[in-house]
Amino acid sequence: MTKKPTVNLALRLLRKGITVDTALKADHDLEPLESSQGTLLIGQSVANPPTWTNVLAHYSPEVRARLRTQSCSAVLLVEVGSGKGKRLFALCFGQGHHAIEDDAIQRGFGLRVVLNSVSRSQLRTLDSASLDTTVMQRRVQASRDTDLSAFDLDANRNLLRLASGTPKMDDFAKALAGKDALHLRAAFDPSKLSEMCEKALNLFQATDYKKDFAFIDHVQPVADRALTDRLDALAFKDLEAMVDGNVSDLHLAIPDVLTPEANLEIGYFGNGLPSGPKMAYGELAIEDYVDELRKGSFTQIANMAEIKRSHEVRVITDGEGDRDHKRRLYTCFVHEVTLHKDIFVLFDGQWFLISRDYHAEIEDAYKVLLKPAFRASTTAKNEREFIAELGPEHHLLSMDQTKVSPKGAAGANLEPCDFLSRSKQLIHLKDGHASAPLSHLWNQGLVAAEAFVSDEVFRKGFRAAAKKREKKFTKNGFAKLLPDGRSKLIPSEFAVVFGVMRHLYVSSGTLGLPFFSKVALGAVAERITRMGFSVELHLIEKR
Question: Cβ(126)–Cβ(151) under 8 Å?
Fold first, then answer.
């Protein structure tokens, strides 16, 4: 019997109702080619010099004439099932996946198939993201099949984005990797392509993942188009507020794990944005995008649908946008909205619903930490002004920008806290609407607490720094609250206090934090509490 060849394939499931006529982007340049199965479309790009010849041309002008690069694309659309269960698959080759309409793709298909096929002990790669104002993306890759526990995934804090591993049964594939697309290495029988697609559909619909990966249901994709349109309208309203100079938690992040060398300049393109040579930015940032909207004609942008349709982020080369290196700007929005007491999160062009059980669990932990603030409100515009405002307070000693290093880490320069109070509060402050994420504040408190409880050199340095600040601000009685090297530290006598300046939410008129900031805080607070400290969150209204 002839051995079937092993091939690598990329398979995408398209949403219910998508047909061959609606699967591809309107401006795709693929051409149909007769096929014995499904609908085949192919494309061949024009041969051009690679961009890196611009460097070599300085030394050898002939290089651009001698070197050419071009790409090939193909999409094979295969329909399986019948009646209401009919679904369309796209088998993509080369650059063919760029021709698929973004909204036509079934999001999370590949990930769900992998988690239904691979046991927790046979994982090879996990990608995850923590959704803060700076999105932290993480890839952990093992050299061999490994158990889930070895990946150090914080299932309560991180959104699982991609998984790969070896399937329990090799009758479908020898190896799988999946996010939206499913990448599989399998023995390929051309006559059984439809059967392979049907097997992938069955695996997508299975619930085996609930045994070891049930946590992915904490954050569920929203499939209702009317609901996503309503959520988009709320996000657009927040964008309008930012253009008008108001604050919002809306921000931007590339939703993929990038290679370290992918350090490119980008620009913003689309209807209502400035035309002509583009300003090149070294990073993707909501502040820069909003600035571009103000320079352009924002009134031309009627709604989020227009941003979805026309706004792009492109790599900038010589002041021009590279049409081959771009992505829809909408897929870079990260936002959170509340609708009918449900929490929804926008990430990678997809709205997600936070499950009510998970939401309740996080809220219960958050309410335990939330305490009456040491200062109810402030007119300070930012953290620096607020620190200056608090400086004269008799019960507080400013330790702002004090640098203390633990033993063996002379250059660590940790800040013990922003203020030390007479009631032994270690207060860490942050403007909750600044560009840096709140997770920086949580981690600052965690690292300082760890050094305080475990390192005698740090404790002595903290006390010495407090004495200097007492002299500087003509205050006394603070340094003696800290261990002197002879007395033992009793963590339970101290409270780690996170003070966050926030504007009232317009919709509710209350103070609060974004949901995933609460998630991150809960994880950090648990670690600090285990050291013996108490942990408190103080919300200070920005007036």
Answer: yes
